[in-house]
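EI: anyone free to look at a 166-residue chain?
SC: sure, send it
EI:
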Amino acid sequence: MRAEHEQAFTEYAQGRALELRRTAYRLCGSWDEAHDLLQTALVRLYRHWERVSAADSPDAYVRRMLVNVYLEQRRSWWSRVVRAYAEPPEQPAPPDGIDGRLDLMAALARLAPGQRAVLVLRYWEGLDVAETANALGCSTGTVKSQSAYAIAALRRLMPDYVGGGK
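SC: here you go
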């Protein structure tokens, strides 16, 4: 890679790392896994930086890379077999107002990886249906149906929060 491309990559990666790591966390639910996802995506980005930097929206391209890495890791046997612990370790009680968020994160962890990715991109990242479909490499109809299935699953898992009492 030429020096000017390497400099541009470094500036992009440093400027977007925190936001991309947050997206990775929302996808996988673990800061350690999010760090690994981001590192893998950045390595791939580095290899293809000249093409990515010339794209209309490098952010969309990188987001797609991040989602692809997440979904690939979820499909691997290692992801299904190896877990450091079955449940999160005991933590001190969170401040008030955090309980709903913790319940949501636990419910998201129980969704299929594709459904979780759709919800994260649509509702946390604020992408529209077409942008989400582009990031996931699927049709807009798939995004809509996966969103509906995922929301229905959240309603079953969290009846007091999603479309319910609280």
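EI: Residues 88-96 have pLDDT under 50 and may be disordered.
SC: 👍
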